[in-house]
Amino acid sequence: MTDYNWCHNPDCHKIETQSRVRGSGDNKVLRTVKIKSYSPDSIWTYFCNNNCLHQFLNKFPREIANIRPVNKPSESPIKVEKTKEESYIYRYSNGESRRVPYISTRTTISRVDND
Ligand SMILES: [Zn+2]
């Protein structure tokens, strides 16, 4: 097994950076970036940077969506709780600030694990 991959962006070798230049004299080329692979589960084992990853995603959006089609929405059960609590705002007038109490509503969303 090899311990490296070539960047999977098909246009990686068209991006003009010093790090991609290979060859000598009049035989210079821009070459696809070689990536040392750390973990097969990391996206960075297949793409040399964010730019190449997004160029790839924008070039193959349908193919990527078809890897794991989503035909209906998913739902996560939650509990929404609204609580009232006393808070303060500051009102400025005539160069002075005054702390004015008011009742604020706090919304808390918590997960309900049914499984
Ligand atoms: Zn690349």
Q: Gist?
A:
The protein is of the alpha+beta class and 115 residues long. The chain is 15% helix and 37% strand.
For the sheet with most strands, the description reads: 2 strands, antiparallel
What gyration radius follows from the Cα positions, in whole Å?
Answer: 27 Å
- Please give the number of β-strands: 6
Number of DSSP helices? 2
Distance between the termini: 40 Å
Structural classification: alpha+beta
Mean pLDDT: 94
Q: What share of residues are in beta strands?
A: 35-45%
Are any ligands bound, and if so which? zinc ion
The H/E string reads: EEEEHHEE
Low-confidence stretches: none
Per-chain topology:
Layout: E1 4-6, E2 21-22, E3 29-30, E4 34-36, H1 50-59, H2 61-67, E5 78-93, E6 96-111
Antiparallel strand pairs: 1-4, 2-3, 5-6
This protein binds zinc ion.
Residues 7, 9, 12, 33, 47-48, 52 line the site of zinc ion (ZN).
Keywords:
115 residues; two-stranded antiparallel sheet; alpha+beta; two-stranded antiparallel ribbon; 2 helices; binds zinc ion
Structure description:
Helices cover 15% and strands 37% of the residues. With 115 residues, the protein is an alpha+beta fold. The strands form three sheets. Strands 1-4 form a two-stranded antiparallel sheet. Strands 2-3 form a two-stranded antiparallel ribbon. The longest helix has 10 residues, at 50-59. The chain is elongated and about 75 Å long. The model has no long low-confidence stretch (mean pLDDT 94). It binds zinc ion. Zinc ion binds at residues 7, 9, 12, 33, 47-48, 52. Zinc ion is lined by residues 7, 9, 12, 33, 47-48, 52.
